[in-house]
Inverse folding.
């Protein structure tokens, strides 16, 4: 029986005990086969004494992996009945150095193979981009219950891919896609009145934006968080979030996102009662619109001019006063005109309803109840409303029930009609089901 000096040298070079070698071999075998072998220091000792010269295949493979060698011969292992391998160092180079160089080469080979592994390709990423663009455009005008399962399916596919391996640039691309899809899921929750779910989705968007270092996605996430805070009645936070979106980090990116953020901030400041800031920021939003370039994505992720006019109408109405109320009517009317002048597929029913509601409220503030009623008739024909439109309608009903409208029959009729339409079923019975 001849001792296995090669194996002993490999162990001593790494300053491992026989117990540590046994533990590493056990872990390697378990990872490769699922079995939990019971090997200990005595087994390694028997290998080094030469009592075992050719362990089973799983153990030989594990030993080669643990010591990072290319073959069993480098560890002094050989089948029984054959001659023990003779170490033949290259001329002028010690044998340990030869093995070390071979091991280094093998490591580079393994790293190259590992780096080349990916579960996506260019076509897969292009398809995801196309899906996001289509869903973003459809979200504006297509019935929400039809979109929910498509959004969920696309998100699930992206999440599963992210659990695998891909090149760093592909991973960043997937996180951008995941962020936009999570933004769609956030809008679904907000439209159905689930502000908690919407906030959770929005945090996921922020996380995806940070990982992918995507400025526009990050800025859009802030705009959506501002939207959630606004409809929760936290106007100070809504304004601060919108302000952070256009000022933090590397800026909001290109497109109309800065105009969106400034419009959101202006609306929140007006609701908070800071009229001076609201009007100043509204002017900045108009300047940002002039300087805006094309948006990266259409539909729900863009900020069309019609929507900006609608936000301006809401802001001016909140500022109040006879002059600003007249301006609010003009802004809301301009929003309606632009929506009807554009393609039907780009016409957002919710934004159009919001503009009509602001116009009706402004007419009420001007004492024109009949004109308010005529404007509201454009809203009452809808089959269902988003949560934000429902809130606006109920606020309007409360206004009609206060002085000086309470005694007017037209106001009573409008309140009754509002109660009837807000009692209709929601846009979808359950946002998580098809």
């Amino acid at each position: 029986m001849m001792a296995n000096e090669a194996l002993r040298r490999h162990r001593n070079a790494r300053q491992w005990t026989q117990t540590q070698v046994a533990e590493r071999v056990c872990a390697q075998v378990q990872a490769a086969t699922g079995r939990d072998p019971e090997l200990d220091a005595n087994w390694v000792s028997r290998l080094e004494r030469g009592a075992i010269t050719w362990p089973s295949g799983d153990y030989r493979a594990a030993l080669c992996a643990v010591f990072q060698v290319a073959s069993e011969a480098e560890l002094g292992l050989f089948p029984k009945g054959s001659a023990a391998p003779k170490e033949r160092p290259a001329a002028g180079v010690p044998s340990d150095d030869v093995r070390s160089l071979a091991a280094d080469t093998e490591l580079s080979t393994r790293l190259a193979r590992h780096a080349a592994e990916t579960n996506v390709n260019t076509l897969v990423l292009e398809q995801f981009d196309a899906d996001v663009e289509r869903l973003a455009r459809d979200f504006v005008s297509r019935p929400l219950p039809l979109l929910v399962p498509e959004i969920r399916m696309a998100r699930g596919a992206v999440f599963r891919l992210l659990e695998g391996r891909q090149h760093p640039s592909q991973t960043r691309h997937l996180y951008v896609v995941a962020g936009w899809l999570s933004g769609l899921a956030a809008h679904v929750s907000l439209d159905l009145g689930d502000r908690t779910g919407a906030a959770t989705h929005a945090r996921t968007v922020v996380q995806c934006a940070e990982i992918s270092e995507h400025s526009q996605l990050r800025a859009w996430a802030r705009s959506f968080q501002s939207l959630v805070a606004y409809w929760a009645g936290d106007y100070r936070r809504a304004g601060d979030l919108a302000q952070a979106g256009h000022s933090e980090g590397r800026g909001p990116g290109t497109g109309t996102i800065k105009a969106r953020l400034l419009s959101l901030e202006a609306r929140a400041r007006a609701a908070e009662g800071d009229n001076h800031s609201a009007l100043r920021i509204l002017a900045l939003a108009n300047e940002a619109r002039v300087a805006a370039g094309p948006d990266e994505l259409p539909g729900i992720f863009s900020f069309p001019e019609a929507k900006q006019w609608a936000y301006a109408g809401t802001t001016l109405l909140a500022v109040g006063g006879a002059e600003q109320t007249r301006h609010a009517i003009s802004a809301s009317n301009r929003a309606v005109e632009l929506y009807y002048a554009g393609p039907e597929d780009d016409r957002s029913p919710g934004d159009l309803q919001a503009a009509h509601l602001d116009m009706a409220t402004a007419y009420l503030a001007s004492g024109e109840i009949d004109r308010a009623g005529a404007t509201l008739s454009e809203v009452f024909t809808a089959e269902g409303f988003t949560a934000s439109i429902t809130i606006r309608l109920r606020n309007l009903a409360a206004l009609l029930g206060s002085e000086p409208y309470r005694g007017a029959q037209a106001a009573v009729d409008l309140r009754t009609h509002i109660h009837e339409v807000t009692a209709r079923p929601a846009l979808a019975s359950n946002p998580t089901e098809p």
In short: The CA atoms of residues 67 and 313 lie 72 Å apart. Confidence is low (pLDDT under 50) at residues 89-93, 428-434.
